[in-house]
Amino acid sequence: MQLEKVTNLTSGPGGAPRRWYDDACGTAHALELVGERWSLLILREMMFGPRRFGDIRAALPGLSANILTQRLETLETHGLVERSKLPPPASVQVYGLTPWGYEADQLLIVLGRWAARSPGHDPTLPLSKTSLMLSFRTMFQAGMAGDADMTVGFQLDDETFRVRIDHGVLVPERGGIDDAGVTFITTPEAMAAYVYGKVPLEALEAGGGVRIAGDRALAVTFQTFFALPPKAGA
């Protein structure tokens, strides 16, 4: 039995070959832009600013250097990614999102929340630092936070992030944590266990997964602002 092909190769922007569904639906075109394996995750890793090639690859350990090179070239051709050079003394090439590329964060939020309802979703699998920060936006319960006003810091290996919560609005970003009321020194997996698995803080501290610097009461309160969506029925 011969199967009919559902896509074909044609010329995209700049003459680059690209797969098409021959379908005017915006969803079909979105898949043409970011539907190849790894593409959307590569975009995810640049959501908090430009990253070096090695940083992206380290965050996606199953991704080969060759495929990463190909995907970055394709995303650049599509106008989602742009290259730049850090000023001295670093003077290294980095990859960042264009303004339109940053708009894909809404795809990640909606898709992530939808997929979290899958009975097959395993929240214990490895998690990148960027994934953790984006998950806070995705699973934040503004009603639970009420009029809370706080800044929470995260020391994740050699990187720092801060989450600002102000009257029902949560904004995560990569950057300094000097103004944080409390800081978690932890890993993405341990933090996910605390926030989403509701593992007691004392248990994680005893196991060495988390250390707290600052206001302990804020650390406990922070956990209450998040909830995973209910699983979809059979």
The strand order across the widest sheet is: 8-7-6-9-10
Assembly of the depicted chains: single chain
Shape: globular
The largest pleated sheet is described as:
5 strands, mixed
Describe the structure in brief.
With 234 residues, the chain is an alpha+beta fold. The chain has eleven helices and ten strands.
Structure description:
- It is a single chain.
- With 234 residues, the chain is an alpha+beta fold.
- Helix content is 38%, strand content 22%.
- The chain has eleven helices and ten strands.
- The chain has helices at residues 26-34, 39-45, 53-59, 65-77, 99-102, 105-115, 129-139, 142-145, 188-195, 201-206, 216-223; strands spanning 8-11, 17-20, 51-52, 81-85, 93-97, 149-156, 159-166, 169-174, 182-186, 210-214.
- A five-stranded mixed β-sheet has the order 8-7-6-9-10. It has a three-stranded antiparallel β-sheet with strand order 3-5-4. Strands 1-2 form a two-stranded antiparallel ribbon.
- A hairpin with a 2-residue loop joins strand 6 (149-156) and strand 7.
- Helix 6 packs across helix 7.
- It is globular, with a radius of gyration of 20 Å.
- 24% of the residues are buried.
- The model is unreliable at 1-11 and 13-17 (pLDDT under 50).
